[in-house]
């Protein structure tokens, strides 16, 4: 079983476009000035995932975020190969024709 989607709304970023309430009215409401408020605790039911994701992606100011977003695992083990020479790609007077710049 997968962990349910959780969202958070940063009301300080919200500019009142209202796309969130349009796409996911079960999770977002608009106050008297048109700014969004989160309904509930931010846990999204599986059947509402697409609507909430649409609201998240359509927010022009990115006021909605997914908590605990699934990220690709990154290998943090040190590499067994020696690092490349960082100076190998430097642009110098000796190779200026190769890089296509002149003074």
UniProtKB/TrEMBL annotation:
GO terms for molecular function: 3 iron, 4 sulfur cluster binding; metal ion binding. The keyword Iron applies. Residues 70-103 are annotated as: Disordered. Transmembrane segments: none annotated. Coiled coil: none annotated. Keywords: 3Fe-4S, Electron transport, Iron, Iron-sulfur, Metal-binding, Transport. It holds the Pfam family Fer4_15. Its cofactor is [3Fe-4S] cluster. This is Ferredoxin [Blastococcus saxobsidens DD2]. It comes from Mycobacterium shimoidei. The lineage of its organism: Bacteria, Bacillati, Actinomycetota, Actinomycetes, Mycobacteriales.
